[in-house]
Amino acid sequence: MKMKFFFASLLLGASVSVFAQGFNDGIDFYSIGDYENAKTILDRNINSAANKAEAFYYYGMIDFKNGNFDAASENFKKGMAADANYANNYVGMGAVMLKQGDKLGEDMFKQARKLVKKDAKLEVAIAEAYFAADPTAYDKKIQKCIADARKWTKDGIVETYICEGDMSMAREDVGDAMGKYEMAFTKDESNIEATVKYADTYFQVNKQLALQKLHEIIVAHPNSALVQRQLAEKLYENGDFAEAAERYGKYITSTNNHFDKDEARYAQLLYFADKFDECYSVASALKAKITPASNYYVPACRMMMYSLENKGQWEEAAAIGKEMFAQKKGADDINFNYKDLVMYAKALEEAKMPEEAMKYYDEAIQANPDNLDLARNLASQASKAKVFDKAIYYGKKVVASDKCVPGDYATLANIYQDMAIADSIPETKAASFVEAVNYINKAIELKPNDIVLLYYKAHIQAASEKKNNGAALESMEALANVIKALPADQQPPYKGTLGYAYQYIGLYYNGVKNKAKALEAFKSWLEVDPDNVNLQKVVETMSK
């Protein structure tokens, strides 16, 4: 695990300046290692910073964490110029120097200690600076800083435990980190950083306990953007979508210190809750204020399209889908997911743009070739609608996969049969029947004695005959033999199928004047259907 929380608790030196809540939100996000969002909030609220030296310090630390050491040094220097008595910037400068191998960085720590004597928070910051430079080489100095910090506050302070937790997390010792964060939280249950880190680590092993602590601290800090966002996100991760949506809604409307990502998440949660009008409204507002270059432009379009489809507004859904997919300028530019492709294709289909729809259905199948259900469904729908070319197109996609099953060949055979029956041109009609038999044979090759498949083959061949010319005779006899070979107690469900086979066989032989075989077949049919009065008369007549 990377050093997500390193340098997280540097609330150093002199008393914390009284900032507007907005700037404090930036410090809160910095404290949990969310440096990108921290900088965004600091930029928004820089004018509310009562102490510019402190503002430069946080900018410097964000640069330091991102490896931008020159920029970090410049910010620390600006901080010193703004207030030479603010100790934090000397610690920050010392951290940069040690990280770059300049041991004179320790002189910066000495300067900070002259400005703020025996300050526990300062010692924690210096300990973390040593840790960032080389946790092994400076281990003794790190431990001394932490020991001094605790000594000067008797019982120790929250920041010392958070510091140790961050260092354990950086070493990937999650268990020890959890213990240290719990000790920090126990010392001060109203401390935002301690509680959020405690909840974040405990969420991995006890989600309900973590959520309970976040619910409790939001009472103490109802206006904290970090606490509101953390609770909403953890609820989402726990699958509590309804409450997560409610919390995200409050968070977004109560503070300007939220992010485009949060609005995208809120729209998503509203969609999960079937609140399609609200989802569309939130996503539409997000799309209107960002550019197509934003990472959240496509998510906004996605939620708009999904919502419109669920409202049956197909043309509007197709239009926004077109905007969304226009962002794909290259093969690796944007990875649209399977549902995006299917939903857009469906919108195009319902908006009477079938050719475009097929293009995106194809992409969906290519994106998830192991999931053949979409192609199967499309083939079935097209066949029912008598759009046979499309049905065959998707049916062949299924059987081309190594994941296809015998039933897929049977489905394609039935599509060809239905197309043949609907065709009025003798040549193409006959060709379709041939294809139908070819595909049902492929199914039978995989399951040779399957009664359903044998029935389908016999039925297809019988349907292809203008008259009872025996095209299905061999298949009918094979079907009858397989059923008769079953144990007696397993034959009853197939009585109708067996009777169908004997009927065909009897009529065929009767038509070619083979009375003996015809009578044999009709007698076998009568055994299956002994109450058939007409059949009784036929057998009686032929037996004379």
Describe the global form: elongated
Number of DSSP strand runs: 0
Q: How many H/I helices?
A: 29
Major beta sheet, specifics?
none
Helix content: over 70%
Please tell me how large the radius of gyration is: 37 Å
Low-confidence stretches: 1-20
The arrangement of helices and strands along the chain is: HHHHHHHHHHHHHHHHHHHHHHHHHHHHH
Distance between the termini: 93 Å
Mean pLDDT, all residues: 89
Strand content: under 5%
Structural class: mainly alpha
Question: How are the elements arranged and paired?
Answer:
Blueprint: H1 21-31, H2 35-45, H3 52-65, H4 69-82, H5 88-99, H6 105-115, H7 120-133, H8 139-152, H9 158-170, H10 174-187, H11 192-202, H12 207-220, H13 225-237, H14 241-254, H15 260-272, H16 276-289, H17 297-310, H18 314-325, H19 338-350, H20 354-367, H21 373-384, H22 388-399, H23 406-422, H24 426-446, H25 451-464, H26 473-484, H27 495-511, H28 515-528, H29 533-542
Helix pairs in contact: 1-2, 2-3, 3-4, 3-5, 4-5, 5-6, 5-7, 7-8, 7-9, 9-10, 10-11, 11-12, 12-13, 13-14, 14-15, 15-16, 15-17, 16-17, 17-18, 17-19, 18-19, 19-20, 21-22, 21-23, 22-23, 23-24, 23-25, 24-25, 25-26, 26-27, 27-28, 28-29
What does this structure look like?
- There is one protein chain.
- This protein is mostly helical.
- The chain has 29 helices and no strands.
- Helix 7 runs parallel beside helix 9, helix 17 packs antiparallel against helix 18 and helix 21 packs parallel to helix 23.
- The longest helix has 21 residues.
- It is elongated, with a radius of gyration of 37 Å.
- The N terminus is likely disordered.
